[in-house]
Amino acid sequence: MTEQNIKPQGFGNLGINPRLMEILEKLKYHTPTPIQLKSIPTSILGKDLVGIAQTGTGKTLAFGIPLIQRLGELGGKGLILLPTRELAAQVNESLQAIGKDLGLRTAVIIGGEPKPAQLRALNQKPHIIIATPGRLIDHLISGQLSLKDVSILVLDEADLMLDMGFAPQISDILRSVPTDRQTMLFSATMPPTIMKMVTNYMRLPVTIEVAPSGTAAENVSQEMIVIKREDRLPQLGKILEKYQGPILIFSRTKHGVKKLAAKIKSNNYPVAEIHSDRTLGQRTQALKGFKDGRYTILVATDIAARGIDVKGIELVLNFDLPDNLEDYVHRIGRTARAGKSGMAITFVSPNEMKSVRKIEQIIKKSIPLTKLAEPEPDQIERSAGRRDNNFKRRSPYRGDKKTDWRKMHREQKRYK
């Protein structure tokens, strides 16, 4: 059989029941992603599972299909824990798309929304609770929620939940659910804290890894621009002229996000912002507007690195490096999703080369480094008066000089 005659495997041989297969066909899900292909058959059999996969690899369906099928067959309740409100809302949307024709009831228990509305959802006896750890604990402490009938537990983005300081809440939740349950844990990385959780709370889990821990998305072209902080706004202006969008820009702090969004807006670009000072409603509207094309640019802190599931993001631009360098992988994973290609550009200061090398160790590959040419004085004068001079002081986007920064660093050390 020639390679051209080999067709990708569909969902038909994974043990999915016929009714769910009809729904997947209706939703035009024809070819499973690698994590779905490997994890669905195992999870449908009721085995505990540890899935190591990047963001954007289809993890929601990887646990969502087995979860809905097994609850329909065996009863009980499902509990999905996630680190952020945005992720919770998106998972709920995906599960409802599959389960609404089956009468699936879900309750989303997250911070930033009124508790009475959540209590009404819980009183309707949902099949699946989708929650962030902090708000779920609030309901447990008040005695308004019991997890005694949870038969399937899903921990999604487990490493991020621990990074955000949710370890005590997760431990309390794990002690509140029955020991005789199925547990599925998904994470992009496997630090020792998660290995300990697996050992203490899971029963002989099957480990599935579709990409080495910390691997960057395959189809992302990456570049780092070595640039002083005071020169970043002009360079951003050049880049925004080159790319049409959707464009996702990350800044380290909420103050930085506000400042960037205001500057971009003043240059007549349709832009929205997401950070912790925004209400849940504002964040939801910003994300919705970014998805439907009302905003071509979204500026965000790392709270959005794993909470944005938007198809077709052309460019991820890191205005700052993240505090946690492993978040670099999750940031750039917002582009090049579902087999498509994308671009990731990162601004780094000359004194951040140590962090660059650490990122390269994490992703196990070198990243091209670009040093921009210094502008001529007349270029600065010519650019004055266009849009905003803060966006127009630099030479064109592609620097005309590339430097081997590692070699330069070695030479500098030799002369010290």
Characterize the structure shown.
It is a single chain. The protein has helices at residues 18-26, 34-44, 59-74, 85-99, 115-123, 133-142, 158-163, 167-176, 192-201, 232-242, 254-266, 280-291, 327-332, 353-363, 377-383, 405-415, and strands spanning 49-52, 77-81, 106-109, 128-131, 150-155, 182-187, 206-209, 220-226, 247-250, 271-274, 297-300, 315-318, 342-348, 369-371. With 416 residues, the protein is α/β, with parallel strands linked by helices. The strands form two sheets. The protein has a seven-stranded parallel β-sheet with strand order 3-4-2-5-6-1-7. The protein has a seven-stranded parallel β-sheet with strand order 10-11-9-12-13-8-14, with helices on both faces. Strand 10, helix 12 (280-291) and strand 11 (297-300) form a beta-alpha-beta unit. The longest helix has 16 residues, at 59-74.
